[in-house]
C-alpha cells in the first residue's frame, strides 16, 4: 500500500491529463461514493472553467512535490547508509 486517499480526493489525475493508463490500483476500505469522469469531458470542462483548470495545476504540482520529497528521502537514506558502511537492498 502506498497511501490512503482521503474524502474528496482525486485519483488518476496525472494519468488522465497525460492520456496514459493509471498504473496503480485503488481499493475501497469502507463505504464510498465514486465518480468517474471521461478524459474528453474533463478537458472540455477545464477549457470552459479557468478556476478549475488552475486547481488541477495546483493538485498536479502538489503530487510532483510529494513525489520529489519521497525520492529525496530514499536517496538521503541510502546515502547515509552508504556513509555508515551499511548495505542497502538492491
Structure explained in plain terms:
It is a single chain. By secondary structure, the protein is mainly alpha-helical. The chain has one domain. 56% of the residues lie in helices and 0% in strands. The protein contains 3 helices and no strands. Helix 2 crosses helix 3. The mean pLDDT is 85.
Number of domains: 1
Number of E-type strands: 0
Q: What is the first-to-last residue Cα distance? A: 20 Å
Instruction: Provide the gyration radius in Å.
Output: 18 Å
What is the general shape? elongated
Q: How many helices?
A: 3
Largest sheet: none
Contiguous low-pLDDT stretches (5 residues minimum) are none
**For the residues shown, what is the average pLDDT?**
85
- Helix fraction by DSSP (H/I, runs of at least 4): 55-70%
The fraction of residues in strands falls at under 5%
Give the topology string: H per helix, E per strand.
HHH
Instruction: State the secondary-structure class.
Output: mainly alpha
Amino acid at each position: 500500500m502506498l497511501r490512503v486517499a482521503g474524502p474528496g480526493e482525486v485519483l488518476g489525475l496525472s494519468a488522465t491529463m497525460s492520456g496514459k493508463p493509471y498504473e496503480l490500483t485503488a481499493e475501497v476500505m469502507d463505504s464510498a461514493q465514486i465518480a468517474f469522469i471521461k478524459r474528453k469531458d474533463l478537458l472540455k470542462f477545464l477549457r470552459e472553467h479557468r478556476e478549475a483548470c488552475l486547481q488541477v495545476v495546483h493538485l498536479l504540482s502538489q503530487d510532483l512535490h510529494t513525489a520529489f520529497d519521497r525520492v529525496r528521502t530514499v536517496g538521503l537514506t541510502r546515502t547515509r547508509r552508504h556513509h555508515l558502511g551499511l548495505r542497502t537492498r538492491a
